[in-house]
Amino acid sequence: MVEIASTDRVFILTGAGISAESGIPTFRGEGGLWRSYRVEEVGTPEAFRRDPRLVWEFYSMRRRVASAAKPNPGHVALAKLERALEDRLFLCTQNVDSLHEQAGSKRVTHMHGELFKSRCDSCRRAPFDDANTYEPPAEIPRCECGGRIRPHICWFGEVPFDLDRIFQALEECTVFVAVGTSGVVEPAASFVAHVRRRARTIYVGPEEPANKFAFTECHLGKAGEMLPNLFPG
Ligand code: NAD
Predict the structure, then answer these.
(1) What's the Cα-to-Cα distance from 205 to each of 11, 47, 175, 179, 202, rounded to whole Å?
(2) For the chain, how big is the Rg over CA atoms in Å?
């Protein structure tokens, strides 16, 4: 169990691994969603300019997979922890699914965007809820301004969302917990290095991450099995 004092502020960073037991494949793992697509073809702004149909085909497939998924005990444990700590918990996810929210988490920062939102590629219209799939022969959706509608996702080469709030929460935290993230994708991979001199740093996942040197504790195991015991609420 991770001891949390009444003065502690906890920063949790989750990655694709926390949703693996819910049936959403990780980025690099076996059966990864990305195996049959190349990142450059579906996960960059250039790809969307070049072939928006292929990009929407990929994100339509991801929407279908994610809408069939249910939160697992790992998501539920973190939602319980939020109820106990209230605003002393900052939950930052690299995931674009909505499983944290479905488990009951109220304040989730999606630094890489949200799969069930879209936005206009041209105008300043705010991102909006969108669970539709757009697959050929369907047309690429268009905004009232004429611009193309794109998934509300931070693609490779784009700047993640909410970095100011995230770095403020990193400054304030005394306990940092990363769950199910390989420690490779930046800037999230460097968050632990940012806090390690003044916060306890804990990793939870079945294998050691690439940045394991920066963690004071590594709890090896699946998120759905480990988190309910580490954070019983
Ligand atoms: P990654 O695929 O690089 O690494 C996944 C990590 O999860 C690995 O370290 C693996 O050991 C671990 N893992 C596997 N099963 C686990 C389990 N049951 N419990 C805990 N950990 C487990 O993922 P990443 O580091 O998050 O980076 C990949 C990028 O891909 C992110 O930017 C993310 O936005 C995106 N992505 C998101 C989703 C999603 O929204 N669910 C899914 C795939 C990829």
Answers:
(1) 16, 32, 17, 6, 10
(2) 18
Q: Indicate if ligand 1 lies below 6 Å from the C-beta of 28.
A: yes
pLDDT at 33: 63
Distance CA(123)–CA(97), nearest Å, equals 25
Say whether 227 sits in a helix, a strand or coil. helix
Testing ligand 1's pocket by substitution, the residue of 27, 28, 179, 208 carrying the most ligand atoms inside 8 A of its CB is 27
Length of the chain: 233
Q: Could you read off the pLDDT of 102-150 as tens digits, one per residue?
A: 999 999 999 999 999 999 999 999 999 999 999 877 788 999 999 999 9
pLDDT digits (tens, 9 = 90+) for 29-80: 666 666 678 888 889 999 999 999 999 999 999 999 999 999 999 999 999 9
Is residue 112 annotated as a catalytic residue, yes or no? yes
- Separation between Cα atoms, residue 43 and residue 58, nearest integer Å: 9
- Which listed residue (110, 112, 152, 194) is catalytic? 112
The residue type of 102 is Q
CA distance 25 to 16: 8
Q: What is the 3-state secondary structure (H, E, C) of 26-43?
A: CCCCCCCHHHHCCHHHHC
